[in-house]
Amino acid sequence: MGDVSSENLGIKDVTMREKMLEEIDIVLHSAACTKFDERAKEHGWPNTYVFTKAMGEMLVGHMKENLPVIILRPTIVTSTYKEPFPGWIEGARTIDSFANAYGRRNLTCFPGDIKTVLDVMPADMVVNEMIVAMVATSNCQCYDNIYHVGSSVRNPVRYENLRDYMYRYLTEKPWEDKDGKSIKVGSMSILDMAGFQRCMFIRFLLPTKVLKLLNTIFCKYFQKMYIEFNRKIQIVMRLADLYKPYLFFRGAFDDVNMEKLRMTARHGGVDEDLFSFDPKMIEWEDYFMNIHFPGTVKFIFK
User: Fold this and answer.
1) So which domain of life are we looking at (predicted)?
2) Residue 295 falls within a domain, yes or no?
3) Residue 170 has pLDDT above 80, yes or no
4) What is the pLDDT of residues 48-58, one digit of tens each?
5) Which residue in the list 12, 49, 82, 220 is annotated as catalytic?
6) Cα(149)–Cα(120) distance, integer angstroms
7) Is the residue at 98 inside a domain?
8) Residue 166 forms part of a structural domain
């Protein structure tokens, strides 16, 4: 394993470096820090994650010289569709943070455009396209190929759908509280920013102000309840702040290159079942209800 933040990947053994230079034909770089907390708004970017991705692409374009380079830009990467088995996932992603907060009744309303497309791709399909793209580039020595890996054009799923799937799943298989009791969820309201602010004021901020006053009057008798209310507010406001740029985004990503690659792979005899990355084959209701949500419960929130 190499450290991409260190010179020569942190490999100090000169002999090993020379051997790697002689024997390695393909370098796949997918290292990233997916923390959204640090901001880059002063440069016109919503967060450090997307800002540094753009910087990385610009740096590669500037320094690659005559090397053939592939850039894949996956949208929200979710649990695996098939391989190594359905539902495998490592670490909570964007929509999983929502599901967890909603399932624990920390989230009852949220800002967003209910008709906005939620652009997601299962992790194994993203990997499949990486593999096929590397082989295709190796065979034809193509240069500067950029692939958008997503579903927004060919098989869109909307926030409205995700909300309904989450409600149904958590109604049928509710989360449990620390005492092992089932947590009953209600329907979540997805609102514009003005509606969200009203919702937060009525459901959280106003009761918290009253509770803070009572807690002071009664010598912190309501301290535990006050802390719990504050915790819920912090969770919701943090999620809203982090993901607001995406919740009202109405664009779709041009995946023409991805489709061309898929056609090339088909005509080249690539096993489409083994190396599939066609979003059209996904039936989203079945995927979320029977693959993704059960996978997040098992591998993240168990």
Assistant:
1) Eukaryota
2) yes
3) yes
4) 888 888 888 99
5) 49
6) 9
7) yes
8) yes
Query: Which alpha helices (DSSP H) does 173-291 contain, by range?
Result: 193-200, 206-217, 223-247, 256-267, 284-287
- Catalytic residue, candidates 53, 82, 212, 244: 53
Distance CA 289, CA 282 (A): 12
Per residue in 283-299, pLDDT (tens digit) is: 999 999 999 999 999 98
Q: Token pair 């969770």 is at which residue?
A: 235
For 204, how many CA atoms within 13 A lie in the half-sphere containing its CB?
Answer: 22
Domain span at 72? 68-299
The whole-number pLDDT of residue 144 equals: 64
Which long-range CB contacts under 8 A does 25-33 form with residues at least 24 apart? 25/138, 26/134, 26/138, 28/130, 28/134, 29/4, 30/130, 31/4
Number of structural domains (the chain) is 1
DSSP summary character for residue 110: E
What average pLDDT does the structure give for the chain? 88
pLDDT at 86: 96
E strand or H helix at 22: helix 14-23
Which pTM was predicted? Answer: 0.86
Lowest mean pLDDT among 136-145, 172-181, 276-285: 136-145
**Other residues' Cβ atoms within 10 Å of the Cβ of residue 116:** 19
Q: What would the mean pLDDT of 137-145 be, rounded to a whole number?
A: 70
5, part of any domain: no
Q: Does the annotation mark 302 as catalytic? A: no
Counting every residue, how long is the chain? 302
